[in-house]
Design goal:
By secondary structure, the protein is α+β, with helices and mostly antiparallel strands. The chain has helices at about 35-45, 105-115, 135, 150-155, 155-160, 165-175, 185-190, 205-210, 215-235; strands at about 5-10, 20-25, 65, 70-75, 85-90, 95-100, 100. It folds into two domains: about 5-100, Ubiquitin-like (UB roll); about 105-235, Orthogonal Bundle (Fumarate Reductase Iron-sulfur Protein, Chain B, domain 2). It has a five-stranded mixed beta sheet with strand order 2-1-5-3-4. It binds iron/sulfur cluster (SF4) (2 copies) and FE2/S2 (inorganic) cluster (FES). One iron/sulfur cluster binds near residues 156, 202, 205 and 218.
Length: about 240
């Protein structure tokens, strides 16, 4: 059976002088994923190797990492599609806690800032909201985000401005802007339109390119910009 080489970023800031790459060789197998390989290395060769994972089904978003030149989910990337060597390093804009595990707080802080929940105003219905099928359809493409942060880490603006709202948070804000039950349009446009808001986006589409769920954060950002312009001109959206 053929072998596949894993070239894995290793760094423990508490004990190491600097980062290094460590090579591991494992058996190639049909359907072997990058996450499967890392789990095998951890179980059989090197229990000190640190990485995050949970669902193993491209649902939880925790196994996002940089794999052979692109941000991807380790659990859905099959090694057979990557060639003889799989080079793995951590998410780029976040500090390393250990090996492939990064500090996600800056990502979550941006997400919290846009108030990622329904704001129904002062008079919500007593029992439940009724939403038409057409209005529900408007949320398609905005509700499937698994918060893996691939888009955030691929964004060049996040790299130069850590306070930039970023594509994932913008996508979520836009999802609520399109929600017929939400009554916080003005506040959402203010939250995403400040000095570190959507106007900083360079529209280079990196976020859209890497999204493992084929979502369109760049389009959401354009939508938020349009909403802000219309609000400024007193036009209805
Ligand atoms: S928009 Fe896509 S890439 Fe960004 S966090 Fe959501 S699922 Fe991940
Ligand atoms: S399109 Fe905007 S948000 Fe997306 S990666 Fe580029 S600069 Fe960042
Ligand atoms: S382990 Fe959950 S998305 Fe990969």
């Amino acid at each position: 059976m053929s072998k596949v080489t894993f070239n894995v970023f290793r760094f423990d800031p508490e004990t190491d002088a600097g980062p290094r790459y460590q090579r591991y060789e494992i058996e190639q197998a049909p359907g072997l994923t990058v996450l499967g390989g890392l789990l095998e290395i951890q179980a059989k060769t090197d229990p000190s190797l640190a990485f995050r994972s949970a669902c193993r089904a491209a649902v939880c978003g925790s196994c996002a990492m940089h794999i052979n030149g692109q941000y991807r989910l380790a659990c859905e990337m099959q090694t057979e599609m990557l060639g003889a060597t799989v080079t793995v390093r951590p998410l780029g804009h976040l500090s390393v806690i250990k090996d492939l595990v990064v500090e996600m707080k800056p990502f979550w802080d941006r997400y919290k800032e846009i108030k990622p929940y329904l704001m129904p105003g002062d008079n919500p219905p007593e029992k439940e909201f009724i939403q038409s099928c057409d209005d529900r359809e408007k949320l398609d493409g905005g509700i499937d985000c698994i918060l893996c942060s691939c888009c955030y880490n691929s964004c060049p603006v996040v790299g130069t401005d850590p306070a930039y709202v970023g594509p994932a948070a913008a996508l979520k804000a836009d999802r609520f802007l399109r929600d017929s039950r939400d009554r916080a349009r003005e506040e959402r446009l203010l939250l995403t339109g400040g000095d570190h808001g959507v106007w900083r986006c360079h529209t280079v589409f990196s976020c859209q390119e890497v999204c493992p769920k084929d979502l369109n954060p760049t389009g959401a950002i354009a939508d938020l910009k349009l909403g802000a312009i219309k609000a400024k001109l007193g036009l209805r959206s």
